[in-house]
Input
Amino acid sequence: MNRHKAPLYDRLVEHHNRRTASFHVPGHKNGQGLDPAAESYLGSVMELDVTEISGLDDLHQPEGVIKEAQALAAQCFGAEESFFLVNGSTAGNLAMILSVCAPGELLLVQRTVHKSVLNGLALAGARAVFLTPEWDRASGLTFGVSVEEVERALAAYPEAKGLFLTNPTYYGLAADLTELARLAHSHGIPLLVDEAHGAHFGFHPDLPPSALSCGADAVVQSTHKMLTALTMGGMLHLQGSRVNRHLIRHNLGVVQSSSPSYPLMASLDLSRRQLHTRGEEWIESGLRVLRQLRREIREMPDWEMIDRDGAASYSALDPFKLTLRMKGNRLSGFELQGKLEACGCMAEMADIRYVLLCCSLATTKEEADRLLEALHKITREEAPNKQENGLLSTNIPNKPIFLPLSAPVSFARPVPGASTKVKALELEQCTGRVAAEMVIPYPPGIPVLYPGERITAAAVKELAGLRDRGARFQGARDPQLRTLQIEEDGPNGWNAPISPHTI
Output
């Protein structure tokens, strides 16, 4: 196959140049019906926004240019088979879980997963055993799971159908998955990896290895996050025979739109071609900007940046992720994010301590200089003797609030509390009660509480701290998190209360 081709994009351009009369959807008719106010921004994209007409193939039954584009993607990323995702990594996570777990079957799941994984478990009617993540003492952030944790889980739950991990984290912390893949395979189960933030991994010596190269069986990537596809563009890669490919194809048809966006799919094709033909050179151009930016931040005495050094517990760090905080607890991450935005620098997200800045191979020196100017300005505004933000040292635990290896939690019903009486209780009064809803600080979209879990005092403390600093929450009926929905009548809910235990 010719890696220099972008077969789907090329065919779309060829079709556009034929200037055919459109008697098919979409209704804007190659952009002719577009609001004139948007012409300069959306016009050229709308000209390529077509549907499954002759010659343009069908994502759900690919036989032509989409099949060829997906085959080139597999070649590029080292997979045996690859699938385009038009509903983001969410669709890939759902399809993986639905293809591995039948109702009532059990999946070993890293606790720090995206909310789509929980939705996948609910759709599958599966059960999950949650694995405690590793903790990096230097940064206070979590990553991966240890081999020992997985060994304990496999010994306790030999009936598990698969191991589901997230790598890298939102913050770019990465673990070596090689031993975990071998361990899963030695027990006859597949390793499923949400690699949403690692589509660029393995294409440059300074980047961590890809999950596929470590032996993962099924890997989901958000091509739009760190590469150059349009938002919602992703890929699902497969290798080996441990995941049923017929079920993957079927379930992708279930969870993905029947009207996939052709501009989005073309952007996946083009992003692959860039990586396939210029990969290391292309990434190096972005890394040059980041190396200089990191050097200059290290020389700024008021700023602390997560770096891969001797004190770090994780095996690798994505150099395109900049995680910053101001020394001395003078600003929370949320406050720092607001100040950066006031300077015209839009961060990816913030938490109680840090701001996360997502750079990429497209980040320019001019943008890096603008960030440095903003940091210098904030330094001048925040006097070194400013009173410490007490919330950073009093309300937030020094260690993350994550439960140890859990007993199986059933996701057999998709509606929390559907067969249980629930009531709202003030957050501060919820210690010891059983959650009847999922609570997800967003971003990064990682659930802190699952329905059916016993609420600990430490979890209440963390949630209160996040709430008081302006974090946003999804899943909770009360978005301000003044109250939580809890089970009123005890152990008869759709996720019966469990007692977390260490095995």
